[in-house]
Every structure is written in structure tokens, then in C-alpha cells.
Design a protein that fits this description.
Number of strands: 9
Order of helices and strands: EHEHEHEHEHEEHEHE
Radius of gyration: 17 Å
Strand order of the largest sheet: 3-2-1-4-5-6-9
Strand content: 15-25%
Largest sheet: 7 strands, parallel
CATH topology: Rossmann fold
Low-confidence stretches: 1-5
Mean pLDDT: 94
CATH architecture: 3-Layer(aba) Sandwich
Distance between the termini: 30 Å
Number of domains: 1
CATH superfamily: NAD(P)-binding Rossmann-like Domain
Structural class: alpha/beta
């Protein structure tokens, strides 16, 4: 059910699954117009189907965020078709099974850096200028507790990309808060999402049951978004109990 027609537009990357999908569905339920970004059209279409009645407020854009030209073109299409963007959620992320320094390939290293860090940067650069021009905007980056402390579980490329994303968030606040723009870094612990399938040892059902759910992190993101404009949650560390 739509609680309030807000006449606002958000962009969500990684919207075809996991935390990105959950954020998109919660935004739609609050009456937001949402641009869904992801690499697979069928996954984005499933997000729209799950939205039910608010589905008309969701529009899919097939885009690989690791491709700078694709992000720039998609960003322009969104601004032309949907109008100004009030909020950007960078939720796209990836990892690889062979992730330790001993076995990490150059291709997997660059793939993680390109999606997890560069992709978020490309999206920020696609939508920040119009936020700056209007004097308002919220950017929420879904990072990971790996962006706080390295661990073998995450692997070095993932850790490096997430530390970089934390730095990007801090830089946005350092440079743009005077222009009415705020950025939030959310650092979740273990979440039961499809990304777990890329671990060297895939967690079983018992392990997944102890983890947080995508909806839990989406609730955190929506909480930060819905705070008054003069309030900035710069960092939020969230772990399962």
C-alpha cells in the first residue's frame, strides 16, 4: 500500500536482487518513483512484479554500472524520462569464490573494483550535478563491515573496494554538505542474499538463518533517507545479534 505520494524519484543500483531489490520495493510502497538499475532485465522485471500495485512507479534500466559510458548514458535517460533524482542508492556489489591473495586473479580483482567502487563513483557523478544545482539530495552507499576491517572471509579485492566506497561517502559529505547534499555509508555484517553463493564455501541453511535479511538493511537505508534534510547519518554499522 502506498502510504504517501511523495512525487520524488530515486535511483537504485543492484535492484534485481538482495538489498537493492528490497530498497526499491520499500521506496515504491512509500510512493517514490524508482529507477531500477541492474545487468539482467528479467531480474528487474521480477522486482517490478513483486511491487504489486505500486509497480507503475518502477522503471527498469539495464545497465552494467562498471561501464562508465553506460552509466552516463543511462543517467541521462533517467533524468530526461523521470526528472530530477532526489536519492541515489548504490547497492550493486560482487565478489568471487577465489578471493584470497593466494588465488585472486587479475580479472576478478578488476571486476570487484569496477563494480563495487568505480560503479558507485560513476553513478554519483551521473546524478550529483543535478542534486548540487537544486541544493538537495541524498546518496546512500551500501558497503559492508569489510569496509571497516579486513577479514579472510571477504578477500582483499572486496575489502579494498569497500574501504574505497567508505572514502567516497566521506568525500561527498566533506565537499557537498554545504550545498544541501548528504551521504550515508551503511556497513552491514552477514546478510542472507544471493552474494553468499559466491563464497568459497557456501553457507548452509542453518548459517543463513542466523544472518540478517535484505529487508533489514533496506529498513536502515529508508530510515536514513526519511530523516529531516538537516540530519545526516554519516555511518551505520549493522550486525546480526
Amino acid at each position: 500500500m502506498i502510504n504517501q505520494i511523495m512525487n520524488k524519484t530515486a535511483v537504485v543500483t543492484g535492484a534485481g536482487s538482495g538489498v537493492g531489490r528490497s530498497i526499491a520495493l520499500k521506496l515504491a510502497a512509500q510512493g517514490w518513483q524508482v529507477a531500477l538499475l541492474g545487468r539482467r532485465l528479467e531480474a528487474l522485471q521480477e522486482t517490478i512484479r513483486l511491487a504489486g500495485n505500486p509497480a507503475a512507479a518502477l522503471k527498469s534500466y539495464v545497465c552494467d554500472v562498471s561501464n562508465a559510458d553506460a552509466v552516463a548514458q543511462t543517467g541521462q535517460s533517467i533524468l530526461t524520462e523521470l526528472g530530477p533524482v532526489d536519492a541515489l542508492f548504490n547497492a550493486a556489489g560482487t565478489n568471487a569464490p577465489n578471493r584470497s591473495l593466494e588465488v585472486l586473479s587479475a580479472a576478478d580483482y578488476h571486476g570487484m573494483m569496477d563494480t563495487n567502487l568505480n560503479g558507485a563513483y560513476y553513478c554519483v557523478q551521473a546524478f550529483l550535478p543535478q542534486m548540487r544545482a537544486r541544493g538537495s539530495g541524498t546518496i546512500i552507499n551500501i558497503i559492508s563491515e569489510a569496509g571497516k576491517l579486513a577479514s579472510p572471509k571477504a578477500g582483499p579485492a572486496y575489502v579494498m573496494s569497500k574501504f574505497g566506497l567508505a572514502g567516497l561517502t566521506q568525500s561527498i559529505n566533506a565537499e557537498e554538505r554545504g550545498r544541501g547534499i548528504r551521504a550515508c555509508a551503511i556497513f552491514p555484517g552477514d546478510i542472507d542474499t544471493p552474494l553468499l553463493d559466491k563464497r568459497p564455501v557456501v553457507p548452509d541453511a542453518t548459517a543463513r538463518a542466523r544472518m540478517m535479511k535484505a529487508d533489514d538493511i533496506a529498513d536502515c537505508a529508508i530510515f536514513c533517507l526519511n530523516l529531516p534534510g538537516h540530519v545526516v547519518v554519516e555511518e551505520m554499522l549493522v550486525r546480526p545479534r
